[in-house]
Amino acid sequence: MSELTTTEQQLRLALSMSSMGVIHMDYDTQLASADPQAARLFDLPPGVQVDRETVHSKFHPDDAVAINQHLAESMDPNGVGEFSMEHRIIHDNGDVRWLSIRKKVLFEERDGRRTPVSSLLAAVDITHKKNAEDFLKRSQETFENLVQNSPFGIYVVDADLKMRYVSKGAREVFTQFDPIEGQDLETIMFTIWRKEFATEIMRLFQHTLETGEPYQAPAFVENRHDTAQVESYEWQIERTTLPDGRFGVVCYFYDATEHEQVAESIRRREQYFREMTDAAPAMLWVTGADHSCTFLSRGWQDYTGQSQFDGLGLGWLDMVHPDDREDSHRIIRSAFERRAPFEHDFRLRTGNGDYRWAIDAGRPKFNSKGQFEGYIGSVIDVHDRQVAEASLRQRAADIEASESRLRLAAETTGFGTYDITTTDSQNIWSDELFRILGLPADGAADENRYASLVHPDDHQRFQQTLRHSMSPDGPDQHSIEFRIIRPDGETRWLIDTGCTFREDIERTRRVVRRVGTVQDITDRKIFEQSLQRAKQSAEMANRSRGEFLANMSHEIRTPMSAILGHADILNDHLKDPDNLLVVETIRRNGNFLLAIINDILDLSKIDAGKMNLQKQPVRPDTIVGDIRSLMDVRAAEKDLPLKVEFAGPIPETIHTDAVRLRQILLNLVGNAIKFTNDGEVRLNIRYDQRSKLLNFDVIDTGVGIPSEKLDSLFEPFTQVDNTSTRSHGGTGLGLTICRRLSQALGGQIDVSSQPGKGSRFTLCLKVDASGKLIQPNLNSLPAQATPAPEIRLSANVLVVDDRRDIRYLAQHFIEKAGSTVYTATNGQEAIEFIESPDSPTVDLIVMDMQMPVMDGYEATTELRRRDCKLPIIALTANAMKSDREECLAAGCTDYTTKPLDQQKLIQMIARLTV
Q: Could you say which DSSP state residue 84 is in?
């Protein structure tokens, strides 16, 4: 027995020395006995038996299911009766501990069954081990996340130089290796870089792995084999310990082609933070929650001469001027109590013993749970600013002293002034402002009374300006012109110009002051109104000029139609060459006069804003080919070569008004031929694809233009030589029309010239090009249309015109084509002819639109009202698009202009009488 006791004592001693606790459970009584160590581990009362449920209540809820499963299995009579596991228990104070337990259940034979009667449970506290394992696991996960999720170029190779971890930024460089983990670094390097460079990289990695010596590579420029791209990188490698305990190599790199400098790769945070703060121009500091300083940047030591260690805690106060220490400590302590930002000025001693003004600013910092951890802040030298502010304050005092003089000067020059302070309602108006407003000078400076004088038509705009200038985020300056009605009933124009001053008061931005001047501008407004009336009169005169030119053109085109038409008739009846020459002279000069009329009409259209462009797709080389074809004959008459040159490819198609573009080029080339007697004329075409500019250069070697004449060259009715002995004809409208047409097409015309050496006219167009660029081919132009076959008519036509010559001419053309013609001299006669039962049947009406008694518009409208269905061709000397639309709106079927075009008229009658 004594031997057993001794053994038990030895066992207890061993258990106490091993920190193992033992619990004996009696299943008959459901009571557990714990030794002192087990009582401490399970948080049980020492030396007291406890029931089984008390022990089970200590189990952590997250482990209860697994524990109960093991307990049930150990109580199974057919089982092994024992188990081992690790689980957590919770002490009454909330402390969680990890235990490693081993339990053995003892069985007896009772009534022929194997029954559990008791158990022994041995437990050891492994909380420290578990925490260490958890820390190691989190460290590894953190390491992997830092590497793999980093947008920067980072990868880690193991001792076998195989890829272990690769950052997101590195994967973007090694995109062809997927998956990249497990790949040989050597394979990757030799795939990307040339052999010599890859060999050197592998040598450096191996050297760092074996010796632990890091390597910082300079920037390099290499041609990648896999992408054929030239890339530049800076990189460094360091040896690191991997989670498995073996050495590896970590490589940091970045693309130096996109960054001017490289930040150092991963370093320990404390070193990185210290280097950053030491390099900062401000003196940075950090405190703990007790407001004692825990960190000072090197800038503090460099500035004050106090070591960083001596400045920790409250040692930094020793550097503050004695007169400022108490205020500084009080301000900081107050901010700490409120957890609020702070900022204050104080004098700080420098390393040479001088005191300079500095500003100390701090902001509270909190952890992710919102718990206060202290402050972070900076100290900046503001001595020069303080000196400047002192100077400014003195300057402000000087300005304040001179305000009265400025106010007197303003009143002398007719300006009224006001100064409105919102904080104390002390409004000040100058005597001149009272006079401008028509108020007694001894009255109160009342803004409401000022606003009440504003004219009703201007009141809303005035109030909006006032509210906007007085809003917290409104403009700093304002200016508004408005009318007032003085108390005596007189209306005056004023201009109010002022400035608004705002301050941040108790974290709220608000207006504190508004100052400005008021000037009576009634005389200026009266003058501006007179200028406006003069402008309107000028515009009306310009419109009248356009209408006069249009009417004049109409009156001339009507008799011109008769002259040219009868010349054609006469030409058909004459055989004698001399007589034919006379008729040709009449026709040539008539066409020349008609060209002048057309120029005047074009100019009047442009001036009246009625020039309508018809833009459509057109080949530019086709237009150039037309120009050369038309101008070759005229150039040949003067024995001049006409050269056309293209400087490179041009758009296949452009969208423009081909008629107007052709008109401009014909005028420019025609002028060049007209004013050139020797040498040549060239038309050069070039296209700038980047700016989409199509340029036409017309270059001649003619008489040239004096520089003093260039400015007036494009003015209407202006010629370089306007003397009575000038040798070249023309109205002086051609270039005017060309420039205005070019502007309407979205371009411009420029000119350069030297007398006796020739001129260069450049038409520059911003074109809307489509299709591809082509080499121009002037030989593949559309074939000329074949002459239309002679048309024979068989209709009865009523010609209505007040001019006998025009009636005769139209009758001649129509009867020559085979039709029968009846005539009327005005619209009323035409209606009576159509309505009379004795009149022959008519198939079509040719109706002049401008006639006495009843014009063509009225007659056509009346005929349509009477349900007349006959086709009606409008005949007018006007050629504007609006005239055509007016004719069609009156009920006309189609439209033609004077002078009469025989072929066009016959074709139109044939089409409408089929």
A: E
Confidence of residue 655 (pLDDT cuts 50, 70, 90): confident
Question: What is the phi/psi pair of residue 487, to 5°?
Answer: -55, -25
* Contact (CB, 8 A) for 152 and 252: yes
* Three-point CA angle 87, 90, 93, nearest 5°: 160
pLDDT attached to residue 276? 66
Q: Which two tokens stand for residue 634?
A: 């005229």
Helix (H, G, I), strand (E, B) or coil at 428: strand
Tokens of 71: 């307990």
What size, in residues, is the chain? 914
Backbone phi, then psi, for 268, in 5-degree steps?
-65, 140
**Nearest of 247, 266, 263 to residue 207 by alpha carbon:** 247
Half-sphere exposure of 913 (CA within 13 A, CB side): 24
Instruction: Give φ, ψ of 821 to 5 degrees.
Output: -120, 135
Q: Cα(725)–Cα(718) distance, rounded to whole angstroms?
A: 15
Is-cis flag, bond preceding 179, omega within 30? yes
Q: How far apart are CA 226 and CA 190, in angstroms?
A: 10
Secondary structure string (H, E, C) spanning 218-275: CCEEEECCCCCCEEEEEEEEEEEECCCCCEEEEEEEEECCCCCCCCCCCCCHHHHHHH
DSSP 8-class letter at 184: B
β-bridge mates for residue 492, sequence order? 484
Terminal-to-terminal C-alpha distance of the chain: 147
Residue in the block written with tokens 């449970």:
121
pLDDT per residue as tens digits for the range 417-463: 888 887 766 778 888 888 888 888 777 777 888 888 899 999 899 88
Q: What is the DSSP letter of 340?
A: -
Residue 679 contacts residue 640 (beta carbons within 8 Å): yes
Structure tokens given for 694: 């199509």
Q: What is the DSSP string of 165-178?
A: EE-HHHHTTSTTSS
- Non-local (6+) Cβ contacts of 365 within 8 A are 372, 373, 374, 375, 376
pTM beyond 0.85: no
Q: Which of 569, 560, 547 is nearest to 897 (CA)?
A: 560
Can you read off the two tokens belonging to residue 569? 């008739």
User: Considering Cα of 790, then 793, then 798, then 804, what sign does the dihedral take?
Assistant: positive
Residue 484: its H or E element? strand 477-485
* Residue type, position 62, single letter: D
Computed on alpha carbons and rounded to an integer, the radius of gyration of the chain in Å comes to: 53
- Res 180: pLDDT: 86
* Residue-wise pLDDT tens digits, 138-181: 666 655 555 556 667 888 999 999 998 888 888 888 888 888 88
CA-based nearest residue to 870, from 901, 894, 848 = 894
| pLDDT attached to residue 2 | 47
Instruction: Look at residues 355, 146, 178 and name the one whose alpha carbon lies nearest to residue 250.
Output: 146
**Helices (H) and strands (E) in the chain — how many of each?**
26, 35
